[in-house]
Amino acid sequence: MRAAVDAPVILEGRGLTMRFGGLVAMAEVDFTLRKGEILGIIGPNGAGKSTLLNIVTGLYRPSSGEVRLEGERINGLPAHRIVAKGIARTFQSSRLFGDLSVLDNVVIGRHVHMRCGLLDAILRRGRAEAELREAARRAAELLEAVSRTLYAQRHRPAAELPQADRRRLEIARALASEPKVLLLDEPSSGMDDADTDALMADIRAIRAARPELALMIIEHDMRLVASLPNRVLVLDYGQKLADGLYEEVRLIPRVQEAYLGRKAAQHARP
Ligand SMILES: Nc1ncnc2c1ncn2[C@@H]1O[C@H](COP(=O)(O)OP(=O)(O)OP(=O)(O)O)[C@@H](O)[C@H]1O
Ligand SMILES: [Mg+2]
Question: Closest Cα partner for 223 from 262, 250, 205, 185?
Answer without folding.
Answer: 250
